[in-house]
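Progress narrative, Year 2. Work on Sulfhydryl oxidase from Mucor velutinosus advanced from sequence curation to structure prediction during this period.
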Amino acid sequence: MRRVYLISLIALLYLILTSLYFVFKPTRSSEFSSLFSNSKLSEITTNGSEQYDKEVIMGFLGNKTEKAELGRATWRFLHTMMGRFPESPSPQERQSLHDFMMLFSRLYPCGECAVHFNKLLKTYPPQTSSRLAASQWLCAMHNKVNERVHKPIYDCSDILSKYPCGCDDRLEDTSSSTTVNK
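Result:
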């Protein structure tokens, strides 16, 4: 069973990274290149959350089994990620998590799920002030989804212990950034 979760998680990560590659892949088209001129880039970064107020990219998934499998793997991935988020994140780390969640809601492979999650994000924006805040926020979002699909509600009080990743917590501090030893 663990192998299935691991394979699903790896497949989900591969899909996300591949999607991001094609979204941001530079082309030779001068029309596309002009989007990244300094003036356009500053417009994008100064508009804040408006850049995320777009429709989802993916279509609906017709296969209920695939949709359920994707959902389980996604929640495991997201809960594990929140459990690994820094306890006291820097402003850049907070922004990265916020941006990830906003883009994730547009790129999620199930378009129907993405539409619903996108609506949740507009009502309940990601909480990124700490590991606890992020994990509690995600658990609350998971429960909102569970309510909608008539599944049981999780007790969020010990959510961090429910999704251990088995990661190596040893850190090596290098000048201005922190890296994880392998």
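The mean pLDDT is 77. The CA atoms of residues 10 and 64 lie 20 Å apart.
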